[in-house]
Prior knowledge:
The structure holds two protein chains of two kinds.
Chain A: H1 3-10, E1 17-18, E2 26-29, H2 34-43, E3 51-60, E4 66-75, E5 80-89, E6 94-96, H3 105-116, E7 119-121
Parallel strand pairs in A: 2-5, 6-7
Antiparallel strand pairs in A: 1-2, 3-4, 4-5
Chain B: E1 4-6, E2 18-23, E3 35-41, E4 44-51, H1 59-63, H2 72-76, H3 83-98, H4 104-132, H5 136-157, E5 166-167, E6 170-171, H6 179-201, H7 205-211, H8 219-224, H9 229-233, H10 241-244, H11 265-289, H12 307-312, H13 314-326, E7 333-341, E8 344-352, E9 358-364, H14 366-378, H15 383-393, H16 397-401
Amino acid sequence: MEVEEAVAQSVAGSDPVREDSFGGPLLVVSAAKIVDVLRFLRDDPAHRYEMLIDLTAIDRRVDLGVFEIVYVLRSLEHNTRLTVKVRSDGGDPVVPSATGLWACANWAEREVWDLFGVRFDGHPDLRRILMYEEFEGHPLRKDYPVDRRQPLVEERDPIRDPWPSRDGL
Amino acid sequence: MAGTTSTHGAGADPTAEIMELQMGPSHPATHGTIKFNLKLDGETIVGCDTEIGYLHRGFEKMCEQGTWNQCIPYTDRLNYASPLINNFIFVEGVEQMLGVQVPERCSYIRVMLSEVSRIADHLTCLGMASAELGAQTVAFYMVQARETLYNLTQHATGARVTVSYGRVGGLTRDLPDDFEDHVRVAMLSVREHVGNCQKLLERNRIFLDRMIGIGVIDRESALGLGLTGPMLRGTGVKRDVRKDEPYMFYDRMEFDVPVGTKGDNFDRFAVRLDEIDQSMRIIEQCLAQMEDGPVCVDDPTIVLPQKKEVYESIEGLMAQFKLVIEGIKVPAGELYVAGEGANGELGFYLVSDGSGRPFRVRVRPPCFYGMGAVAQLVCGHTVADLVAIFGMVNMIGGECDR
């Protein structure tokens, strides 16, 4: 059974569509069901995509009017690779968080929030990771000019006024 | 910069106090680009928040500004300990999108130089990590061996670090005639120095006590944290992109994938050391199998023409102008391409809209995920162990922060 049929049968309302590109399998599913789809793909013995290799986003507002969130999955057992994608609203993109499935989604989602401004619902600690807290805008959006200047921010005393910090556990 | 704050109120038991310690970014062991916000109970770490981003230069944004070939110099500056691997995996991805097959000699050169880079990267990691544990001599030996590899790289590419040697559809130039002799000299030097380092470390009580049983991670957690490369293989998972999804000519090479058993610092150390041997095996096989021939595809829409043609024919001149100004026309679509970088799976997610410029270039940096795992690895250990654990992650700032 092809992966889109298996996903359609097991996760109701996920609306999987195959959009293979350059021979690589690519599955587009509905954003609301992404966590269920990923959990199915991770745990189903016929698929066993036990690694989330990468999570990123593409700003396609210029042609499709959406943000695309891309999950690159990897099965060690079957030695296969699968890209899963969701399309999220171009105005205020929100996608359910995959941190409950893979610990590495934590940092990856923080990076997508930082650089694209895509919020992940249910993320335990969604703050910027590569940029600093006072940074204005999300630099990998296509409408962020490459030569834009940022305002000068005051130096923060890290002892008296530390960053909001988690234990990272 | 290190600062402390105490969280206890007046009259509280000072031994029960949790102390906050900010370690880095200007700390010799954090390479100037990482800050650890630690919570300490005595000397034991009970919480760690890792801050990265101090070396962020907007690699992905810059790649969208130029043509596909103009991304190559940026990829040099990702993992600057093994820039050739970044070069080659990136151009392999663009070539897959174009559907071109590079000549055999080109693939052999790519495999061979990737392995030279891998050895240089492992030597950097092991040498620096040992120096941080006090084994300064080991660092000097390893840097000396690495120097011969940098000279080798320079002999082939003209540069030691910022090589920009790969091109979409081939290489900038063929290897010099006497390259094989230089490789043999460099390999002798690496063998000698690595052998000396093994003698210094492998029965050294101080070193072993700081490596064995420190920073242990099991298979399941390693998979969940997205670890790849030596960090994953240290836990016993036999996963190597070169073996599992052979690219270039890795399917023609015989080599083993060393794995560890416990997933501690020492396993990560031993895996890297064994991989140096395996890389040397691959280099020997490349030299034996490689034959003369072209190193670039014969397609004027992809590869720049010879200078003689540019100066003497109108077709050559036009091809040059179109490639430089408009760039290579990569068909629209997207592709995730992966290869085995020195510290894990290095991937590029490439999106093309059919124009001559990349729509999006995403790099999957292996040590970004490695750094994400540090918080879990260090908890329960002492501050001094953090240095050893961090050293074995092999964080390369240019790649982690991009």
